[in-house]
Amino acid sequence: MNKKIRLSILIIGIALITFIMISIYPKTIHLHAQGMKYRLGAEHIGDEKSVAIDMDGTVYTSLTGNKRFVGTITIEGEEIPVPEHQRQIEINLGKDLSGIMLYQYNEDKGISHFLYGTIFLNRSFREATFTVMDRDLEEGNQGGNWSGYDGIMITVPASDRAEALRISNHLMKEYLDGYILH
To answer: Which residues span the membrane (predicted)?
Structure first.
């Protein structure tokens, strides 16, 4: 009986260690998708644009389940005032798979920051929606804002506004807390 108990504990221990290792093992992400860039609000229906998104990197999972993406995100037509060779970004996604897209880069005058917006992902990393900061284009102004009323969104994969809104409302459900994007 003693041998059976030890063998059972050993098997359970190996299974637990295997599960933990699989859960925290870094996952390579390659999302290359066509999506939509659009502004919320009925008055902006018809102004959507098709965009391509490339997201390449690695997702690391901590023992507590929090996730962190390290890599590059390229969105067709988006001007990011960060030197090309410094565009790797680290996004703390947390358990809900959303995070702030804050670029940090070096300039002659020191370290600079550029806040692009927020990303929301599904568990398979095959769907994404971005809230894009609406910027005041004054020289040197890195600030901006986003509103659920008329904010700029980018969603992939999506072939039209209705599909993009469906994905966005699903991915942002907890964040929106009952509000529905239109």
So the answer is: 7-25
pLDDT in tens, 134-148: 876 555 555 678 999
Tell me the pLDDT tens digit for each residue of 113-133: 999 999 999 999 999 999 999
* Cβ(150)–Cβ(181) below 8 Å: no
Query: Is 15 among the domain residues?
Result: no
Which residues make Cβ contacts (< 8 Å) with residue 25, sequence separation at least 6? 61
Tens digits of per-residue pLDDT, 2-54?
Answer: 888 888 888 888 888 877 777 778 999 999 999 999 999 999 999 999 999 99
Domain assignment present for 181:
no
DSSP secondary structure, 63-74, as one string: TTS-EEEEEEEE
Omega before residue 83 within 30° of 0, cis: no
Pairwise CA distance, residues 182 & 168, whole Å: 10
Question: Does residue 79 lie in a domain region?
Answer: yes
- Rounded Cα–Cα distance for residues 17 and 179 (Å): 41
Enclosing domain of residue 144: 26-176
**Half-sphere exposure for 84 (CA within 13 Å, toward CB):** 0
